[in-house]
Amino acid sequence: MRLVHGSEEGRRLLARLRRPLGEAELLPAVRQKIRRVFGADLDAQAVVDRILADVREGGDAAVRRYNEEIDGVRSGPDLPLKVSPKEIEDAYVQVDEEVVRALRSAADRIWAYHRKQLDHSLTGFDESGLGQVVRPLKRVGMYVPGTTAVYPSSVLMTAIPARVAGVAEIYMTTPAAADGSISPLKLVAADITGVDGIFRAGGAQAIAALAFGSESIPSVDKICGPGNIFVALAKKAVHGAVGIDGIFGPTETLVVADDGADPGLCAADLLAQAEHDALASPILITTSDALAQTVLRELEQQLESLERREIAAAALEGQGLAIVVETLEEALALANEYAPEHLSLAVSDGQYYLGQVANAGSVFVGGLSAEAVGDYTAGPSHVMPTGGSARFSSPLGVHDFLKVISVVSLDEEALAELGPAAMVIARAEGFTAHARAIERRLKGGR
Length: 446
Description:
alpha/beta; six-stranded parallel β-sheet; five-stranded parallel β-sheet; 48% helix; globular
């Protein structure tokens, strides 16, 4: 993890962490697989374009082919894309009862939070014939990545806000193992949240099937969920045919700490994100050089006992950054420019400095507010903007599954008030028919 001093150097290095979508270098093994599957050296965008076109044309057969060629998932009539109720039932036997109870407890918290969010969300109104109505989306698709590392928490964090909003149908696609199995943790989480259908499909082929539909996988109104570069590019490509929640990159945690912060907890929070992905960004900004030095030592010590220490070490080496600045105001200014997914305020007056936060996916105030609790049981969805998009977007919530329909219901008095000016503007734009449609009403239909 690199240690630097001063806002200017910190700003320069933070800017270098931002990589536009599609610029990430593909690993040699991925390039080799692309050559094997497609018979050519294609970049990520070309791979996605090919898969989208094939699935749109070939449906289930294309999804199965790419599942087998890319993910190594066996295909055949004995393994349908859709997961059966028996597989979901069997999953409960394979998952420890304590884990099932924890998932149910987390689900209860997430339900409660998003019901409160709905109470304060957009509502309909009708004033003088003008207003709006709010309607839920009908059908949502949820992509849940991972076969080695699985994320049942992401199932809860995505499906529950959709259900609270009133979405009628929720479908989940997720990569399967080589034998076609899906982690029982994912199946149990999907069952707890009432997902309507689970399908064995990973990568760009899953996004294509959700966008365009196939014989087995229904087309949806919106696709939600993170994934690798191929998933992200596929979501970007189908945006417009369907809605998407956002384009997500590697996870980010930025800890702002004063000289009274606990260095062991700061290190623990940074490692909690670093173990997600070798491309994760664990960042510390502090007013104390002594604290920064101690955090670096803590990172080395705590790293040794982690199961995913190689991944965490790679993240610290590649993107880890400790920046020492003069004041907390400077620290918050840098944090707002970076707009992190997770922002931890390890400072003595967290509520005061919360008022200075303008850009973040989620803020964790005070030493006891572990970001890891937010990942699982706090209540807000952990699906949050990355890559600086917290400057203009929000965490996944009930609002993502609602749409507003404007309503115009004029009586004679309102038409007489609004019509003449509308006619003037219509004629100024050269739209005579617009003006006459209003004029006929003002003249009683003549």
